[in-house]
Amino acid sequence: MSEHFSTQSVHAGEQRPKPYGAITTPIVQTSTYTFTDTASIVEFMQQKAAGQQHRDEYGRYSNPTQRTVEAKIAALEGGETALLFASGMAAITTTMLTLLSSGDHLVFIQDCYRRTREFVGSYLSRWGIESTGIPADQAPNLEQALRPHTRLIFCEMPTNPYLRLIDLEQVAALAHQHGLLCAIDSTFATPINLQPLAHGIDLVLHSATKYLGGHNDLLAGAVVGRRQLLSAIEKGRGVLGGVAGPQEAYLLLRGLKTLDLRVRRQNENAQRVAEFLQEQAGVERVYYPGLPSHPDHELARRLLRGCGGVVSFELRGGHEATSRFVDRLRLPYLGPTLGGVESIAQQQALFISLDPAERRAAGLSDSLVRYAVGIEDAADIIADLEQALEGGKL
Ligand SMILES: Cc1ncc(COP(=O)(O)O)c(C=O)c1O
Question: Is the pLDDT assigned to residue 391 strictly greater than 90?
């Protein structure tokens, strides 16, 4: 039986004993790894050919700190193995470029991260890879989007900013019935709230920049799945070069040790914030899967252990009133990320475009605020929201 999340967060993947008796995994700050003589090179090459490599060769292929992080993330996701990347986008692009070829077709959830959408629409298309985007709430009808040359179904959940969910078991069953692979960007969920592999999904991807790192001090990405699938993606990483450096790997390893503590606190904070907001006269609508009013509440109860740290809400009042509300907030930082210990808020539309027509085309209301709660005390987050709402008599 595998250990519980908190124990895995601290101990999984960690070598014992470590060099010099250190309790932490060292940062191996080197770009290459040397050999003592020709015989050791020949031995290494033989092991590599047999897939039984026991040491590192060159920094673009692997690093000891990186391998420890990979083992920890694999354990947390309940996967055979994991790969670490320089960013979430490096993980996504390398995976798609490795798995798809010219003439293939990809089905993806349209409400996915916008740079993923951009990569699919503006880059994969240039290399003859076709795609069909479907809204998250149309996922039950996904079969209609399949073509004879479809190879991959790429999902993301909870989606940004409306936190829509997908019935993963249904998607996985459909994919396998048609001999396809299915992958999910599980950044917003984290393995604490959802382990997609246990629901039949083949590949789990993360922007480890967010909850896995948890401290807003690094960029990294990860892919988790079966060894045989990941070995092709590992080769792709070695060629495309989106590898994470040893310093980032160390910071991520350190952040991961508190993953379970942080995410559980963020789940609790977000639930309380969502419940508070839905009672406020100045708030038009709250989007949080932990609220019965969310369209995917039942799915959340079935699939998620917690509903995550992001709460989105629409205020009564337009663009300027929403900007004034955001400016009155004292506790959160204003910025475009989520998942760290600090609360971060943003008027979502502003980060899309300053052109109102483009914002409308993106389906985003000017009054929408995305609030990514940190690990502060919920009472302080709520008191701050209260003063910001009352200050503007919203
Ligand atoms: C859901 C999701 N996936 C992927 C990414 C990309 O990750 P990164 O910024 O680490 O490249 C982001 C970034 O915001 C994201 O929110």
Answer: no
